[in-house]
Structure formats: structure tokens, C-alpha cells
Description:
Blueprint: H1 6-12, E1 17-18, H2 19-26, E2 30-33, E3 36-39, H3 40-45, E4 51-52, H4 55-65
Amino acid sequence: MRLNGVDDRIERHQFPTTSEEIIAAHGNATVELADGSERLGDVLGRFGEQTFDAPDEVIDTLRAGVCHRGVGRRFYSDRDPATAGEDGPQPVSF
């Protein structure tokens, strides 16, 4: 996910603030996803009314709230355990 300057805009916003105030001021700004883009207002709107005390809280909410186009391969995990009958990766000791 690329923020396309959204993080700079949020840094300049006065805090504490609400998601409604952020959406009113910056809702049309877009973030670039792995497969397309999404408006800041759409992402924050998924979480309902919230109060943010710092810019980092808004950025964390954005990262958690982007749609499936922002996560790369859906339902993929290289952390899944081996299934029954598979040898799976060999443990490595560091």
C-alpha cells in the first residue's frame, strides 16, 4: 500500500480529531493498493465513528482497513502448518 502523500496530509491535521473530521478534510485522497486504489473516506468509513489522538492511529487504521485489493494474494499464508501426510518445512535452529 502506498499512501500517496495521505500520511503528510494527516500529519498536518490537528489532533485529537474524529474520523468524521478526517473524512471531511481528506476523504477524497486516495491510497494506492496492490491492485487499484481506494479513497481514504471509504476506508475510514468502514470503522464507524472514532476519535484519533495522533496521526499514527489514523495510518494504522488505514492499513488495517483497506479492501482485499490491498493485501496481495488473498487467503495465502506461508505460515500455515503442514497438513496430515505432508512433511512440511524442516525446522531450522538459529
